[in-house]
Amino acid sequence: MRVQPLRIVISSARKFINMGALSRLWNLLKNFHAADISSLMKHLTSRERLILFNVTFDQDKGKTGEVLRELEPEDAASILRELHLKQITELFQMIPSDDAAPILELLPDEMKESILAAMEEKPSEDVKELLLYEEETAGRIMSPDFYALDHNTNVSDAITAMQLERDVESAFYLYTIDEKSRLVGVVSLRQLLFARPNTKLKDIMTKDVISVHPETDQEEVARYVADYNLVAIPVVDSENTLVGVVTVDDVIDVIEEEATEDMYKMVSLDTTDRIQDSPFKSIKKRIPFLLFSIITASLAPVVVHYFEGTIEQFVKLVVFLPLVMALGGVAGNQTIAIIVREIAIGQTEWVGARKALFKEIMVGIGNGVIIGAILGGFSYLLIKNPYLGFILGMAIIINLFVAALVGTLIPLVLKLLRLDPALGSVNLLTMCTDSVGALTFLGLGTLFLSKL
């Protein structure tokens, strides 16, 4: 938020809401960008959010529609559930169908049907069509509004047609189609403006068009846009008929959404968990993952219990055991983060992953030697026992090797099984590094017990 520090704005907004000074609340917000208002709403309670939204709706319906587009679909849906049907219908007719569809999908079925029935025919049909596609696909995020003209149209007529066209979200490219509405080329606005008026579009169009299908995963769509430096990408069906376009603003939303989703899944967190949720809601969302963590973390205590006799004879082993286990977890998390990212951007697959595996193993061994030597020397200075330093150093080397190996293989195996590579990776890694770290350290301690 650029206008004022966010903290001051939040405090002022809450003060005006609690005082019932809604005109002063609007004076505070009226010059804000829609993105700033949506950012502010993330820090308010459900009641405060609804009041602010209604004030904005009463004063400026157009800006309210923009705010609705900027909100997360879950947050937008929670607000719309509290509004009248007429308000919701007005808002949905203001925003593009590709923004309305994900919000509408989260509303109750009866409410959804009422909204679609109350909307005008054109936007209603567009939204219904988008809802037919699977979530997280190009078909769900595409806009059915785009510029497309016959490839035999000349430049002068094309410019006139674009000037007369209305309600088109994407004006980055002009797509050229044949008599059967099949995509045959694309013309940038720059090409259009600098061409001679009588030139036909087919003479200046780019024939090698990067396109996707409605069923294409949204992550792959984002990858295409990034790799080929596009600001929009056309969506075609099996017969190459142009059915929609995905614009760069939608791609940015996808990148943010996928990054958040991967981050949440790596730490076994529900992707809908938010700081604004009540403690009860957050407990309900987090407890299943914590219960799963109990299962994955229970192997290490079993290993430690097995070496109870060794620990009783040389209790100082316990001092360094958490260090061995923790270092394995940190190193493994570093590897997982890198591999998950490489998979997400399409750089690493199960086939051809040998290079990544070899590199991470070498990094793990190298780090293990350096850290093991440092901590081995430190333990010798502290305990004055060279064998303990050797045991600690070797245990760290082995555990960091295992961390690199497992941290690379877990995401790749999950990808091979058609599961999200980030899903539960950290829990599975912790199970391996904790148990192997304990087994290695206490096992070597048992082997050299007479020297300790």
List the SSEs and their pairings.
Layout lengths: L5 H14 L2 H8 L4 H8 L4 H14 L1 H10 L2 H8 L4 H10 L2 H8 L4 H10 L2 H11 L6 H4 L6 E3 L4 H10 L8 E5 L5 E6 H6 L6 H4 L13 H10 L4 E5 L5 E6 H19 L12 H19 L1 H8 L1 H6 L3 H28 L9 H30 L2 H31 L8 H23 L5
Parallel strand pairs: 1-2
Antiparallel strand pairs: 2-3, 4-5
Helix pairs in contact: 1-2, 2-4, 3-5, 4-5, 5-7, 7-9, 8-10, 15-16, 17-23, 18-23, 20-22, 20-23, 21-22, 22-23
What does this 3D model show about the protein?
A hairpin with a 5-residue loop joins strand 4 (232-236) and strand 5. By secondary structure, the chain is mostly helical. Helix content is 66%, strand content 6%. The chain has helices at residues 6-19, 22-29, 34-41, 46-59, 61-70, 73-80, 85-94, 97-104, 109-118, 121-131, 138-141, 155-164, 189-194, 201-204, 218-227, 248-266, 279-297, 299-306, 308-313, 317-344, 354-383, 386-416, 425-447; strands at residues 148-150, 173-177, 183-188, 232-236, 242-247. The chain is globular, with a radius of gyration of 29 Å. Strands 1-2-3 form a three-stranded mixed sheet. A two-stranded antiparallel sheet has the order 4-5. The chain has 23 helices and five strands. The protein has three domains: 6-136, Alpha Horseshoe (MgtE N-terminal fold); 148-255, Roll (CBS-domain); 298-451, SLC41 divalent cation transporters, integral membrane domain (Tetracycline Repressor, domain 2, Orthogonal Bundle). The model has no long low-confidence stretch (mean pLDDT 85). It starts with 5 loop residues before the first helix and ends in a 5-residue tail after the last helix.
